[in-house]
């Protein structure tokens, strides 16, 4: 009896131990799943909560007593209140041939009783050459001036301290900028107008432009909160030195009382456009035909939560074989001090023969029929991002893209699949032959993929681009080594990833596929350029099949390689990009050139078309190679800005640690000369008249929408580990433990009743 009771006591002790362990295991994950818990967020989402905390810690005290009727505030992760600053975006575009001049007006409104100082992190196209800032105060317009970044910040902070209205525009990434406004008086509106120049994309007869409307949260490796000696209030990262500059607070649930950020877009397409071929795949538009040409506009103001894309074709008979656009002199003339101290326009003191001219040249390579292309076997490595930021519509698009890519493989091909989040998982250690059995296994692998965890993209790139790949391509000739990389690009350590691609690309070709409503186009396009591939954007599930099939057909073999540009006398012009990337079917040669009037006017573009030499002569004095381009205007403004922006991008990519200071000096000088915002220069505008008010000053922020299709933060725990499996397992064990506890409790009650009966 004693032994039986002893065994029973030991069993009960073990059961209670299991119960305690299950509760300790499950409760932390239950807390993580709470919408108010920072730990429930993936890295990009966690950054936002940290940003709220460190930003609020630096602001003047703001309490419920400060809240007045009509004021919009939100509560940070640590419980502090912050005013929320409404912003309305108005975009106006004018397309001229292959260029697009864009004006972006940001209307800041102050509905509080305080003087507000605000900061807004916003996106622009990754090759936008931002050259103009105007501050509108009622009827007054203050022109912004270009300064080195630190000097511009000092001018802005001084104006802010003196009670003067001011605005500062800075670049955080080539596709990410900040607008700061100072001393926005109560019940006042301030309009910040930013202008930029860009080129239009052309692919297989279709012209297109893309305007981003939201900055998706970024994954920051090595994220910490606090500075040296345990100081708090600053977001830092061991891998991203400016982490606190590229993150912004995000709106929570849709029902929250917070200003909805909306945008209105108008695009003047000019003459010669086929009205029936104008399309906006993600937004409803209206068309207005006037004397100046066709104008496409958003049918209604839209929520700033997904990229705007517009596509069009030219009328029959207008499609070009070659286009040349010219500009004499610079858009912004630099000034210098004369001997008597007065400012002299340097352009006026320079002879016409020494003035720099700029040209934008587009040449279409000859069409290659599918039957004439080499049908080489390919080794296709498919990489898919399954991090938490891909949850929702993005992972559905990416998985469908994988399925279509697998369907496009031929018997002579081999393949592998790599998925990555906080870790990397491979379908196979080595590429597999594209047999029916292997493809069936691959489809099962794809079906099991779920979006969860961080975005450790470097691990995926190292797996996809190994320096020594165990594959058939290493031992066989004429096998195309291609990597298709599907991701939303929501990372903040782009420079480190570019360096990795540059050193490990080898003989591979890297093709990036942007997934979702707001992918990081800067990373996607630069990565493809370094990988000698192309960038494809998929913004909707319905586009997946068409665009993946087009991509697989296009990348079967480059149409032109080893492209070079020279004058007909053998001299080499100052052109960008350099080197020119390989071209695939439907892609044009697009180069930006700086030249002087005394230099030759005949340009020779040459390259390799398969095993044959190819070359094309283009005159810089003519708009056409044949009569097909007669509708194109020759003189276009802003070409110097495009040339300078291309050179800045090339200089930035050339940084290797040892030459960083030299590159900074070169980029700063170039940006100052062409009046461009860059990593080291900013535009600042200051109204010299201080505001007249006794209201107290407060800092405010613009809260961004989540990109369309993203999971709201806290709805599902997307951590940097496999939380869903742990929670499920913890829940099952907890249920078993509770059932065991109830059984033990019932046994104890029966034993107690039996003892009572025996005692009587």
UniProtKB/TrEMBL annotation:
Span of domain VIT: 70-198
Sections of the chain in a coiled coil: none
Keyword Transferase part of the UniProt annotation: no
Transmembrane segment boundaries: 12-33, 727-744
NCBIfam families linked: marine_srt_targ
CDD domains named among the record's database cross-references: vWA_interalpha_trypsin_inhibitor
Source organism of this protein record: Shewanella oneidensis (strain ATCC 700550 / JCM 31522 / CIP 106686 / LMG 19005 / NCIMB 14063 / MR-1)
PANTHER family, A to Z: VON WILLEBRAND FACTOR A DOMAIN-CONTAINING PROTEIN 5A (PTHR45737:SF6)
SMART domains: VIT, VWA
Keywords: Membrane, Transmembrane, Transmembrane helix
Protein name: Inter-alpha-trypsin inhibitor family protein
Domain VWFA per the UniProt entry, residue ranges: 379-555
């Amino acid at each position: 009896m004693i032994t039986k009771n002893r065994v029973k006591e030991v069993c009960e002790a073990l059961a209670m131990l299991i119960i305690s362990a299950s509760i300790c295991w499950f409760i932390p994950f239950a807390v993580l799943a709470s919408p108010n818990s920072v730990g429930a967020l993936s890295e990009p989402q966690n950054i936002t909560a940290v940003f709220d905390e460190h930003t609020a810690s630096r602001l003047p005290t703001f309490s419920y007593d400060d809240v007045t009727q009509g004021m919009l505030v939100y509560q940070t992760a640590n419980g502090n209140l912050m005013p929320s600053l409404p912003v309305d975006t108005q975009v106006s575009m004018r397309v001229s041939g292959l260029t697009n001049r864009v004006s972006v007006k940001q209307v800041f409104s102050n509905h509080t009783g305080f003087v507000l100082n605000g900061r807004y992190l916003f996106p622009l196209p990754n090759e936008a050459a931002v050259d103009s800032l105007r501050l509108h105060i009622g009827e007054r317009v203050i022109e912004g001036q270009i300064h080195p970044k630190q000097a511009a910040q000092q001018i802005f902070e001084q104006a802010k301290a003196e009670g003067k209205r001011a605005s500062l525009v800075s670049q955080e990434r080539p596709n990410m900028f900040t607008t700061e406004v100072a001393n926005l008086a109560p019940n006042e509106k301030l309009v910040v107008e930013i202008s930029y120049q860009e080129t239009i994309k052309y692919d297989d007869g279709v012209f297109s432009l893309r305007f981003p409307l939201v900055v998706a949260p970024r994954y920051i490796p090595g994220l910490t909160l606090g500075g040296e000696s345990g100081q708090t209030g600053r977001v830092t990262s061991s891998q991203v030195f400016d982490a606190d500059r590229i993150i912004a607070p995000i709106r929570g649930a849709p029902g929250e009382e917070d200003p909805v950020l909306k945008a209105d877009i108008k695009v003047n397409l000019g003459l010669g456009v086929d009205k029936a071929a104008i399309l906006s795949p993600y937004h409803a538009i209206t068309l207005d035909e006037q004397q100046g040409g066709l104008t496409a506009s958003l049918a209604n103001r839209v929520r700033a939560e997904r990229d705007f894309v517009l596509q069009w074709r030219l009328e029959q008979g207008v499609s070009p074989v070659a286009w040349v656009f010219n500009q004499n002199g610079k858009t912004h003339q630099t000034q210098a001090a004369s001997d008597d101290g007065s400012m002299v326009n340097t352009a006026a003191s320079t002879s016409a023969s020494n003035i720099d001219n700029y040209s934008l040249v587009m040449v279409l390579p000859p069409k290659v029929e599918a039957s004439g292309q080499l049908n080489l076997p390919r080794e296709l490595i498919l990489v898919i991002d399954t991090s938490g930021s891909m949850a929702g519509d993005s992972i559905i698009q990416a998985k469908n893209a994988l399925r279509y890519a697998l369907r496009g493989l031929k018997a002579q091909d081999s393949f592998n699949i790599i998925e990555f989040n906080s870790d990397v998982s491979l379908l196979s250690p080595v590429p597999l032959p594209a047999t029916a059995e292997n493809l069936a296994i691959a489809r099962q692998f794809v079906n099991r993929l779920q979006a969860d965890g961080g975005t450790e993209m470097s691990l995926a790139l190292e797996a996809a681009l190994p320096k020594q790949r165990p594959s058939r391509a290493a031992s066989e000739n004429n096998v195309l080594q291609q990597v298709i990389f599907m991701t939303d690009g929501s990372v903040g350590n782009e420079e480190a990833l570019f360096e990795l691609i540059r050193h490990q690309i080898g003989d591979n070709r890297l093709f990036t596929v942007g997934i979702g409503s707001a992918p990081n186009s800067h990373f996607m396009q630069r990565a493809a350029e370094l990988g000698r591939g192309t960038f494809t954007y998929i913004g909707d599930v319905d586009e997946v099949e068409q665009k993946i099939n087009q991509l697989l057909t296009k990348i079967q073999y480059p149409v032109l390689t080893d492209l070079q540009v020279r004058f007909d006398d053998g001299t080499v012009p100052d052109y960008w990009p350099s080197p020119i990337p390989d071209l695939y079917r439907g892609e044009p040669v697009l180069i930006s050139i700086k030249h002087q009037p005394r230099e030759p006017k005949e340009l020779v573009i040459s390259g390799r078309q398969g095993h044959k030499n190819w070359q094309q002569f283009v005159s810089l004095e003519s708009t056409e190679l044949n009569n097909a381009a007669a509708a194109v205007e020759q003189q276009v403004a802003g070409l110097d800005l495009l040339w300078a922006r291309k050179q800045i991008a090339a200089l930035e990519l050339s940084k290797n640690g040892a030459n960083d200071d030299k590159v900074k000096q070169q980029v700063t000088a170039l940006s100052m000369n062409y009046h461009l915002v860059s990593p080291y220069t900013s535009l600042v505008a200051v109204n010299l008249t201080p505001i007249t008010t006794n209201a107290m000053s407060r800092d405010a922020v613009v809260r961004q929408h989540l990109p369309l299709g993203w999971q709201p933060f806290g709805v599902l725990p997307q951590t940097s580990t496999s939380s869903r499996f742990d929670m499920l397992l913890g829940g099952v064990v907890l249920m078993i433990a509770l059932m065991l506890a109830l059984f033990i409790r019932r046994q104890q009650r029966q034993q107690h009743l039996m003892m009572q009966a025996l005692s009587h």
